[in-house]
Amino acid sequence: MLWPLAVGSLLHVAVRSSTGTASDLAILWRSGASLAAGGPLYDARLEFIYPPLAGWLLAPLGLLPFRGAVVVVVLVGLVAVVAATVLLLRLVGIRVTSPVLPGVLLVLAHSRPLVGLLDQGNVDTVLLLAEAGVIALLLARRDVAAGALLGAVCAVKPTLAPVVVALVVLGRGRALLAAATSGVVLTAVGVLTVPDRAVFFSDVLPLLAGGNRPELTPFNRSLHGAAVQLGLPPALDLALRVAAFGLACWVAWRRRSHPQAPLEVVPLLMLGTLLASSFSWANYSIYLLPLLVTAVRRDSLVRTWPAWAGVYLFATNDAWHVEDLTGLPDTLLRLLPLAGWLLLLGACAVVPHRSETAAPYRRSGISASGLGGVPPLPLDTPIR
User: Which of 118, 198, 212, 311 is the most buried (most CB within 10 A)?
Assistant: First the structure.
């Protein structure tokens, strides 16, 4: 009975987003239109900060009227999120006919990350599907395809670059090589074909390394953003960032031998990067969905109440701010998504490590490689 609620909520978000300002898409649309007309890709204010290859993918949008481009991006983004959710739930044994699917979609439709991304006309919803695709391919042991997909995505927008570290943790050398090859080749294509390619290296990369534009500092939810807003010493800022990413790597390393390790290792490294990056939007929490769907498993890292308290802090709509509140209290309220990320990582770190073996599969007569190339679930996982 949850389907009417889920579908209605998703349609409401789609209509509202299609008629909104789509501030992020406006930047992408202008740059794509400029490149399609033979002009420069990068604007004078450096609002467009994607790699050169992204310009050619956005050029067709620039040929559309802006409102038409908004509708296209919102609908594609919504379909991508639904597809990613279906795929991820399938990987943990949840069928499309299960009431869990509309329940998850209903929660997503009211979550801060999805509402924010669609409202801004952002393409990270499509990257979520790419993340899910990489995880599915890794689970199916199709390492070359997984790496090729990852490299292609990073050549367009390197948000999924932390997955490269996940490949190292998982020991997937073939996937790593494929990612490097496709990423380098496609990046070269973009660099060689965009007229103002030099701007990306001389201006855009230093800007990103420094934490994006100064006027965006109040929206930075990473540890670096918190350090700047709270006036913390640079040395403490660096130490906190290294510690957070190191902790994420340690937790991921503990789980590298888990039967479904990519479902945990990939989002854990994304979580560590959200904390340690020079700039992180709160809406990037959408990339943690693969970790959260593992809650249906009894051996999941996120089957604890502190983990979901953290999820509440970064997934709820931005309704915490008090009118006319200023100073430290206002800053702390704005940093609640960061607190949620830290709480989730801490909860994952204290879960006792459970070593997994293939013995149950051998006893049951099922190959540990799974059926159809997809690894099986542990026997204590309910199939819905």
Answer: 118
> What residue has token string 């199939």?
383
What does the DSSP 8-state code read for residue 64? S
298, with CB counted inside 10 A (0-12, 13-18, 19+), is exposed
In angstroms, what CA-CA distances link 48 with 57, 174, 338? 14, 33, 25
**For residue 128, what are its two tokens?**
């979520």
Region for residue 333 given its phi and psi (left: phi exceeds 0; alpha: psi -120 to 50; beta: otherwise): alpha
| Ranges of H-type helices in the chain | 3-18, 23-36, 52-62, 66-91, 100-109, 112-120, 124-139, 143-156, 162-170, 173-193, 197-199, 205-209, 223-230, 234-254, 261-276, 289-292, 305-315, 327-334, 336-350, 359-364
**pLDDT at res. 331:** 85
Angle 238-242-246 from CA coordinates, rounded to 5°: 170
Query: What pLDDT band is residue 44 in, cutting at 50, 70 and 90?
Result: confident
Q: By the 8 A CB rule, do 377 and 92 touch?
A: yes
Asked whether residue 363 carries a pLDDT value surpassing 60, the answer given is no
Dihedral over Cα of 324, 330, 331, 334: its sign: negative
CA-CA distance, 376 to 371, in Å (whole number)?
Answer: 7
User: Which residues, 6 or more positions from 275, have their beta carbon under 8 angstroms from its beta carbon?
Assistant: 222, 223, 241, 244, 245, 248, 338, 341, 342, 345
pLDDT, tens digit (0-9, with 9 covering 90-100), for 248-257: 999 999 999 9
Query: What is the spatial distance between Cα 312 and Cα 315, in angstroms, rounded to a whole number?
Result: 5
In the beta sheet, which residues pair with residue 32?
Answer: none
Q: DSSP label at 195?
A: T
d(CA 383, CA 94): 6
DSSP designation for 201: I
Q: What mean pLDDT is predicted for residues 333-360?
A: 78
